[in-house]
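Here is the promised in-class demo. Please do not try to memorize the tokens; focus on the logic of going from shape to residues.
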């Protein structure tokens, strides 16, 4: 097989997706720009190899059992901890700041992984550290999406009426924009930017944070890291959903 033939075959295979899992020869030819004869030969080869299956009635093609087998291999070798560590390290290296992953545990924010900044001055954040959900960005982005009864229990821990109002305003803002930027909320002179993570059922289960000394992170600089933070969240969430069905 020539490289051109291989590229054409992969181009055809790449057309199959969750949004469009079934194709006929002619429509796939129109979609790919390849001739019907080229498409037909490639589809037949993939069918014979178990990568595609053909409906006897419609003669159209859809993914076969071989992809399920490869998916099982991929899942068996995929470890969530490794993906989190990789994404945190990439965030820390790209930003020059510290990145950490926090899970919701017993109505507290539990830090489970940290990638420290390589700079001389770093912030004090450690794996295993627990904090209240209402204090700091990493907890607030989870608290904002918790069920009302659990959220009310957290609010009762904030006794000052003015502080309660500020917290409620913050939670409403988080639900609207999907992230939170904190400056000196939990630790003086520390800035943190956090986003929540959700399971397949839409329930919040964790948060991802990038933070560092406020002197290095004015608001404009901090917000410039939001796209990378969201990309890391997508990678971690995709792994989580793969492992948890």
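The designed amino acids, position by position:
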């Amino acid at each position: 097989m020539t490289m051109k033939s291989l590229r054409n075959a992969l181009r055809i295979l790449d057309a199959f997706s969750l949004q469009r899992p079934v194709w006929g020869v002619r429509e796939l030819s129109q979609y790919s720009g390849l001739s019907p004869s080229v498409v037909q030969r490639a589809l037949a080869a993939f069918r014979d190899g178990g990568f595609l299956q053909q409906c006897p009635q419609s003669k159209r093609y859809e993914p076969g059992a071989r992809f399920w087998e490869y998916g099982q291999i991929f899942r068996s070798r995929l470890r969530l901890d490794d993906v989190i560590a990789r994404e945190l390290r990439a965030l820390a290296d790209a930003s020059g700041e510290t990145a950490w992953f926090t899970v919701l545990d017993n109505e507290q924010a539990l830090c489970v992984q940290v990638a420290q900044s390589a700079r001389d001055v770093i912030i004090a954040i450690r794996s295993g550290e627990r904090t209240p959900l209402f204090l700091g960005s990493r907890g607030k982005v989870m608290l904002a999406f918790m069920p009302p009864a659990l959220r009310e229990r957290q609010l009762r821990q904030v006794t000052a009426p003015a502080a309660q109002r500020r917290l409620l305003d913050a939670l409403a803002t988080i639900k609207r924009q999907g992230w939170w930027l904190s400056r000196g909320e939990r630790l003086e002179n520390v800035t943190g930017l956090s986003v929540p993570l959700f399971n397949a059922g839409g329930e919040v289960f964790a948060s991802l944070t990038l933070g560092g000394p406020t002197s290095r992170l004015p608001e404009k600089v901090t917000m410039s890291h939001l796209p990378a933070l969201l990309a890391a969240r997508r990678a971690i969430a995709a792994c989580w959903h793969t492992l948890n069905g």
